[in-house]
Amino acid sequence: MTNVRLPPLNAVRAFVAAARHASFTLAATELGVTHGAVSRQIKQLEEHLAVQLFVRETRQVSLTPAGRQLFAGFAPALERIAATAVAVARLAPISGLRINVRASFAARWLIPQLPGFIRKHPHIAPQIFTSSEEPARLGRDGFDVVIRRTRAGWPSYLKPRPFMADHAYLVTAPSLLEASPVEKPEDLTRHVFLHSETRANDWHELLSFAGVGWIHPADEMRFDHLDFALRAAADGLGIAVGPASLVAHDIASNRLCHVLPRLSRPLDPYLIALNDESSPAAQAFEQWLSSETAAKF
Question: Do 15 and 44 have their domain in common?
Answer without folding.
Answer: yes
